[in-house]
Amino acid sequence: MEVFQARFAKHEDELRWLYMELYNNIDGYNHLVSEMKQYYVSRRTDLKELDQKRSEDPSCYKKNDLIGMMLYIDNFAGNMQGVKKHIDYLEKNNINYIHLMPFLDKPKDKAKSDGGYAVSDYRKVRDDLGSMDDLEELSLVCHKKGINLCMDFVMNHTSEEHEWAQKALAGEKEYQDYYFFFDDFSIPSKFEETVPQVFPTTAPGNFTYLESLDKYVMTCFYPYQWDLNYRNPKVFNEMMFNFLYLANQGLDIIRIDAVPYIWKTLGTPCRNLPQVHTIVRLMRMIGEIVCPSVLLLGEVVMEPEKVVPYFGTVEKPECHMLYNVTTMATTWHTVATKDTRLLRKQLDIVAALPHEYTFLNYLRCHDDIGWGLDYATLKEQGMEEVSHKQFLNNYFRGYYLGSTSRGELYNEDPVTKDARFCGTTASMCGIEAALETKNEKEMDLAIQQHIMLHAYMFMQSGIPVLYSGDEIGQINDNDYKYDPGKVQDSRYIHRGELNWYKAKQIDVKGSLENRIFTRLHALEDIRKTHPAFISEGDAWTLDTWDKAILCMGKYYDKEKIIGVFNFSAQPRTAYLDDIYDGPYTDLLSGEVVDIKQVKLEPYGFRYYSIKFE
Ligand code: GLC
């Protein structure tokens, strides 16, 4: 208990202060603290050891040796035991951080589960995937191998099938207060004036009428996802207990889903309100007291000025890690336009942030690409938001000459035609089209683009996270169109099952899978062995005198790395006039070269290193 007390003493003042500021409820506070003690007491010894170890090296997750992968348990290996059996495949792919996509109990009806983001029990694993015991077993195996486990904590809402929602539906006022209930539409209609819509086409409006009660409930996402009322201290406490319960199952990273939405105030957009930050800060302290090895990953899919505050300050940190979402969207804009100017600006913005901030970098994930770009800057380059989004959506559907991308629109607004986009990296790079046409040249180009994008992603500061299937170039899965529970949601196009026959081809020389796997592997090895790739190192971009070529620099501990990336399908030359030193070593070929002029093949790239003694 001494350890708990010492950690508690460090945070007690602030914890109590913030809790009372939000709730002014000392009983609630005392209840929270006494439960925190219980979760500490019941935490496994191996996890307590991990807490101790990581407390001694708090920057351990910022090194250059972490590579993540996001995967759906059923798509990857059927169930949790299956994941355990296939750990060797993940290790072979250099993965030491696995994000298990939502696996908690959810409604049986797929059309009411939002891919698992409608949770009906925070303490039960879906029957078809296994049990909490399986999860614990998996975490033990992973920890033995130095692999970190991440899971989603869906904070903003529960499924309508959650026990609290069911009790609310049965008329229990106490549980109706866990959500936002209204007797008529007068207050909801006021909310509607200022709250934007998350899914304007597939789930318009922010409220759902409940016929059996003749009441309205707030549902900002889908009608079956009821928004939790964090103004109620019971909700906050219960959700923190769920968080600690899950942390104690051996999770290393908790992804807090849709966190900007958790506080609602009439007359505001109900996003990123100051109380959201108070809650995240409270959660961070609760974690640091009970289970300090657990990292918080915030899901803030918003413009950069909204994202960065979720890191908190150096003295009062909130999330350990955040998604680099604007860079991801800007990357695909660059793929379509072959113009790196906006990407360069975006990378410079990120590079100017404090080096303590850790981003998760990715090319694709389970969600759509929302085209959240810096349209003010694009306007200066002659591009308008509406028409540019249309261009991107058309380009990535393969409607333009020169585009070999494949994919689907997501939540297209029938009036404004605004839409987001879905597809796998491989399909968006042309691998699907090349398989259709059986055109080898096209395939070479598509693979080259796929690899180049990963090489560039590995060079960004932070933690690279692959999306399962990308390691073998898995293409879109159109089967969702024949499943009534999925057909409305085109995000399922990139949520297909991993094809194990294909995954095994990584060992078959010359196969598509082998060509991708071996090249990614080589890049991952380079990244791991060169300290300059470390998250906390310096990062900058350089002029190349060709809009289609991006040049990035990284420096750490006497090593400088220069990365050059050709986003066009033509051979190009980068003129690196700002390089005054040399010679450099080409990290892929081992050659020692001068890099004032770099000739690149279509979608070609180079990593160069120089060491200073
Ligand atoms: C997050 C998830 C997304 C889900 C939403 C609602 O944004 O990534 O898949 O639909 O939250 O829970």
Could you walk me through the main structural features you see in this protein, from its secondary elements to its overall organization?
With 613 residues, the protein is an alpha/beta fold. It is 38% helix and 17% strand. The chain is built from 22 helices and 25 strands. The strands form seven sheets. It has an eight-stranded parallel beta barrel with strand order 1-2-5-11-12-13-14-17. Helix 1 (2-23) packs antiparallel against helix 2 (26-41) and helix 20 runs parallel beside helix 22 (512-529). It is globular. The two termini are 48 Å apart. The model has no long low-confidence stretch (mean pLDDT 97). Bound molecules: alpha-D-glucopyranose (GLC). Residues 114-115, 117, 154, 221, 257-258, 299, 366-367 line the site of alpha-D-glucopyranose.
Quick take:
The protein has 22 helices and 25 strands. It is α/β, with parallel strands linked by helices.
Describe the protein's topology.
Blueprint: H1 2-23, H2 26-41, H3 45-56, E1 68-71, H4 73-77, H5 80-85, H6 87-92, E2 97-100, E3 104-105, E4 121-125, H7 132-144, E5 148-154, E6 157-159, H8 163-169, H9 173-176, E7 181-182, H10 186-194, E8 207-210, E9 215-218, E10 225-227, H11 233-247, E11 253-257, H12 274-290, E12 295-298, H13 304-307, E13 321-323, H14 325-337, H15 341-351, E14 358-361, H16 375-380, H17 385-396, E15 408-410, E16 420-422, H18 425-428, H19 431-437, H20 440-459, E17 463-467, H21 500-504, H22 512-529, E18 538-542, E19 549-556, E20 559-566, E21 572-575, E22 584-586, E23 592-593, E24 597-600, E25 605-611
Helix pairs in contact: 1-2, 1-12, 2-11, 14-15, 19-20, 20-22
The structure holds alpha-D-glucopyranose.
